[in-house]
Amino acid sequence: MYDLILKGGRVFDASQKLEGTQLDIAVTGGKIARLAANVNEPASQTLDISGRIVTPGLIDLHCHVYHGINDHGIEPDLVGVRSGVTTLVDGGSAGHANFGGWSEHVIPKAKTRILPFMHIAKNGLSTMPELQARTDIEVENTVSVIKANRPLVQGIKIRAIGPTVPVLGIDIVKLALQAATEGGVQLMIHIGDFYIKEPTLTRQLLPLLREGDILTHSFTNNPGRILDAKGKVLPEFFDAQNRGVNIDTAMGRFNFTYEVAIKAIEQGVKPDTLSTDITVPGRRDTVHSLTEMMTRYLALGFKLPEVIAMATTNPAKALGKSDTLGSLKEGREADISVLEEATGKWAVKDCAKAALTTDKALAPVVTVRAGEVFMPDWGPHPWGWLPEQVN
Ligand SMILES: [Zn+2]
Question: Would you say domain 57-318 falls under CATH 3.20.20.140?
Answer without folding.
Answer: yes
